[in-house]
Amino acid sequence: MDPANTNKASTGGTGVYVCHCGTNIAGIVDVHVVVEYAATLPSVAIARDYKYLCSTPGQELIKQDIHEHGIDRVVVAACSPCLHEKTFRKAIADAGLNPYFVQIVNLREHDSWVHTDHTAATQKAMDLIRAAVRRVRIHKPLNPKRVSVHPDVLVVGGGIAGIHAALTLADAGKHVYLVERDATIGGHMAMFDKTFPTLDCAACILTPKMTAVQAHPKITLWTLSEVTQVDGYVGNYKVTVKRKPRFVLEDACVGCMECIEACVYKQAKVPDEFNMYLGKRKPIYIPFPQAVPQVVVIDPETCIEFKSGKCKKTCVEVCADRKAIDFHQPEKIETIDVGTIILATGFYTFNAKRIPYYGYGTYPNVYTALEVERLVNSAGPTGGEIVLRDGRRPKAVGIVHCVGSRDENTNRYCSRVCCMYSLKLAHLIKERSEAEVFNFYIDMRTPGKGFEEFYNRVAEEGTHFIRGRVADIYPDPQDQGRLLMCAEDTLMGVICKVPVDMVILATGLEPQPDAQEIRRRFHITCSMEGFFLERHPKLAPVSTFTDGVFLAGCCQGPKDIPDTVAQAGAAAAEALALIDAGYVEQEPYTASVLEEECSGCKTCIPICPYQAITLLEDKKKANINEVLCKGCGTCVAACPSGSIQQNFFEDQEIFAEIEGLLSYA
Amino acid sequence: MATVASPHPPGAFEITLENLFSFPQGRRVLTCLQCGTCTATCPYGVGMQYPPRRIIGMLRTGQLEKVLTSDSLLSCVACYACTAKCPRGIELTTVLLPLLKEQMLLSLPEVPSELQRALENMLRYGNPMGESPRKRAAWAKTSSIPIRILPEDPRTTDVLWFVECYTSYHPRGQDTARATAKIFQALGIDFAILGNEEKCAGECVRLSGEPGLHNTLMEYNMQVFRKYKFNSIVTSCPHAYDAFRYSYRTAGFDYELRLATTFLAQHLEALRPMLRGKAGYTVTYHDSCCMGRHNGFYEEPRTLLQAIPGIKLVEMTHNRVNTICCGGGGGGMWLDTYYKAKGYERLSERRVKEAVATGADVLAVACPYEISRFEDAVKVLGYDKRMIVRDITELLVESMEGEI
């Protein structure tokens, strides 16, 4: 195929620009040899190298050549197109060329970073450039397409991340749907007693934001709800939400809680989830006093009416005219249109039973840190008194760091918050009891504002620090009420067996158990350990690989409250940027059907992930809706007659590239 | 390696390190956190001059010579506790320590004579006790059922039963052997043994620092295996199982392999109707390190015990992955006098105290090292009126014969 014949408009020649990228490329690839070679290729009018092509002078170089030498096609051999394709498209557009007349050769990621042999890497660079030169000659002029962005936002998860993101967006005047799985918003933060390092009361700083969510006219709050399906694309998502029955009508309930008082269960008997099962609740209950919405909920698993249908229903009697209780409330399916989505689905705490030698679940006085948060909380099951399961008050407490973190047998990563919350619990225990506290740690990690100072303070208060990972916890044979914590004090070089009354396991943070399901539902990806993957760890930390879907909080990885709130704000800002622009520009890589060749076999229709293809009944030909097409190319590959072509990836463009690659000149 | 600053000219210790760092599992020691889990969980960690954490620390700072000229590594009983709990996944028991122990045996001014003797016996007689190889199958003559011995009757057999040393020679081991044979016969298993052609598989030899002797035994046993036709190997000894499963692979071992305990657990449905005699006692089961921590068989022995009518199974404080070693692994079987001289508490006694604390009448075991070790400990501690030690196969046979 002779490139000159395929596009008669392009006669001005090609410019080839090879970037050194400092030493990233030039350290392995001999760029001067590559440039000399490129200059000899057919159609190439100019070949140059430059230290950093992405810099303004680098771009100016290309623009100048377009103006002065009339080149009409450009090949940039530099880094990944993910990083600078847009930069160079804009540069040549500024100089008057169609932006799609540039082809990027990824010399850095595909060549210099992955090879060590200079000669072979230089040869590979020449091959890749030859292919690009062939291809770029037949590029057709294209224009990016615009799609509008629906101004409503979906926020999934009502912990501090979701709450902050929702409030930020709503305060900016956007309508937000906040969908929460539990009966109340607040998430893990609502369960904490104090927050490190400033020891603010968690409830005092969180509940005002929770009530603000409830009161905000721009926020639609759906609790006991889950997203079941997500269709559409950036700017135009269609989301299905399943709203489970509460068996109490939110509009009718005034939150007087008389029904709880009146329940036929005189005593609370059901282990209370919010208090980590350390306390009891009734089948009709409110998760905690400041729950939002302030609406009671009935647990059908334990309510007598649901089990036997023969309850006296004293709750209904006392509710009287308000008629808020409805045992027959159905499940509801809602469908909403939103332009952007923020996922703030939070974390799961490590199941301490997975490390059997720490005795959680075997010895009643081994607690997880989250249980102790409830125990030291004045609204908790013991009113803030540190009382053990056997009724005793501990005289010695041991805290084990890194439980389910930094461990090849469980999770390899550091959970980031455990050192600090362990220090906080040490402080609170010393404040509220006479107990001695022993912190067993591997490395003390306090990298945050005021964190190291807090460590200092807790040490000064007399907490004992033993540098060693606990290897075994078992009942003291001499005193069965106590537990022995066995570790090597590695700084002293001695093995110690510390007798304690209470063990606290500083359990790490894990992805939610259904994170994989959720990521499929929202068409995003997870990193190796199972947290949702950000688009770029440094430069796009709240974006995902799906446009219009953003991340906030621990669903992306373990983090503390300040970082979570910062990230939630960032996610809200990213959503706002899309909404306020009103549209997004999308690559024009859409597919289209060559009608004369289409046989109407319908192979392409069911495989299109965006439902963009329909059959024109009159002509019996497939038709692709350009607005819905995302340019994934699935139909192009599947079409048995080769009658679907995709912009920028047309057969002749691909073949030109292959021929260029294989033709050793 | 650039990571190790050594003041010594290249020599044996440096070569040891180079060997260690030449493969991925060996290089894991460079990731050690120095958290001390290994030292704190090591059953002899308190007594060692250089406990495991310090060994890694010394190794990384070029002070390996001090470690290898001390006798610290003789205290390793290859119990896998450090390996199972190491947060960095460093394979101390299987990778690091055998390599160092080999150098230590060369560097030590004096190797304890009992260990020396056991290893010499292994080379000369194929068993550590120095028993005559010609008497290896002597127990079979006292068995109530006929035992086919392959060298005498080399027809193809379904199951080749690798009996191992302690089951073949120790009087209490022989009880287990006879019990196992009875169960095999009752299940209609077509089995045979190698008789006097069998030699120790050599797992403890390797883990006590004699890989060369292990390889000699391995090559010998592999040759014997190749002489006969059989479908699978079943062994009574977790240590032999371990050797076959891991090190023998390097010599081409690819037979279907099972441990007698798991083999019987697989046949439980056929076995269950035969278990007629009701046991009126409480049992506690000791997880053997090699069988449990290293090979993951925690539930099979318990399933077998619970199939015995009338048995009550109770757990010791340390069970499954957190079990306490009987002290017999990695050469510990042949160092009892040495440990006593060091003033160590006998691990078998530590274990028996925990077993007695459960209130159980029977301490059930599934590794042939343990019967003799625990029976001694029970007697020494004066618990012989309160507790008996039985192999699981013995308990099964008792129930089958309704003797209880």
Q: How does this structure look, described?
A:
The complex is a heterodimer of chains A (665) and B (404). Chain A is of the alpha/beta class. Helix content of chain A is 29%, strand content 23%. In chain A, the strands form 12 sheets. In chain A, strands 10-7-6-18-29 form a 5-stranded parallel beta sheet, covered by helices on one side. In chain A, strands 20-27-21-22-23 form a 5-stranded parallel beta sheet. In chain A, strands 2-1-3-4 form a 4-stranded parallel beta sheet, sandwiched between helices. In chain A, β22, α14 (451-460) and β23 (464-467) form a beta-alpha-beta unit. Chain B has 404 residues and is of the alpha/beta class. Chain B has 3 domains: 12-107, no CATH class; 114-266, Rossmann fold (3-Layer(aba) Sandwich), CATH 3.40.50; 275-400, Rossmann fold. Helices cover 45% and strands 8% of the residues of chain B. Chain B has helices at residues 12-21, 24-27, 37-41, 52-60, 64-68, 81-85, 92-107, 113-125, 138-141, 165-169, 171-186, 203-207, 211-227, 238-245, 260-266, 268-271, 299-307, 336-342, 347-357, 368-380, 392-400; strands at 157-162, 191-193, 230-235, 256-259, 282-285, 312-314, 362-365, 388-391. In chain B, the strands form 2 sheets. In chain B, strands 2-1-3-4 form a 4-stranded parallel beta sheet. In chain B, α14 (238-245) links the parallel β3 (230-235) and β4 (256-259). Residues 1-9 of chain B have low confidence and may be disordered. At the A-B interface, β24 and β25 of A face α3 of B.
Q: What are the key terms here?
A:
heterodimer; A: 665 residues; alpha/beta; Rossmann fold; FAD/NAD(P)-binding domain; five-stranded parallel sheet; 19 helices; 34 strands; 23% strand; globular; disordered N terminus; B: 404 residues; four-stranded parallel sheet; 21 helices
